[in-house]
User: Fold this.
Amino acid sequence: MNPKKQFTEGLITNNPVLVQQIGMCATMAITTTLFNGIGMGLSVLIILTCCNVVISAIRKFIPSEIRLAIFVVVIAGFVTIVDMLLQAFVPALSEALGVFIPLIVVNCIIIGRAEAFCQKNTVKDSFFDGIFQGIGYTCVLILMCVIRELLGAGRFGGGLIDVANGFRFTLDGTGAGIQIFPESYGASIMSLPFGGFLTLGFLIAAMQYTLKKSADRKAAKAEQEKEAEK
Assistant:
């Protein structure tokens, strides 16, 4: 497959959240600060890429009757590794994400890509699929975090950016972020679960509208070219 096409699919036309609409539970639950969003996105990206490569490499040796069980075992192995690394080196992120890191084992994005893509494609294609699908997922998380944090608390980069001790990035989750406007002016509902539903629904609608408009333009152009040939 063409990596450029895979990149476009992962980011836009086949985005795991906005188009495939999978892995949405964690997406709505943890997108309250940029610190959480980037941490969760990178964790899923790493696990997804590693699982894709391993599953693609052993796909010819996996009996079809137990393939899902094998997928879960592989995914659980990499989730455990990432979980332990976060606990050791970024404990604040591990605590903030809580149960959602172990729950990556049953994340529909990873299992879905293993079932729909990796068992049918080469290691190289599966590697790029993991990278680009992970990037698409991470971008959605970051966008949701920015929207919810800004509208809900009037700030940007909570937990990640520390301006009290000079502008710097921090991994201990204590950064207050950049206050754009007073928190009292924010719509606090955006920081609640309903805010996650609302933001995700808006982004899905915007993506579907954009894709439909693009498809309509392509169809109109093809029709014009067909008429010109006559």
Notes: The chain has eight helices and four strands.
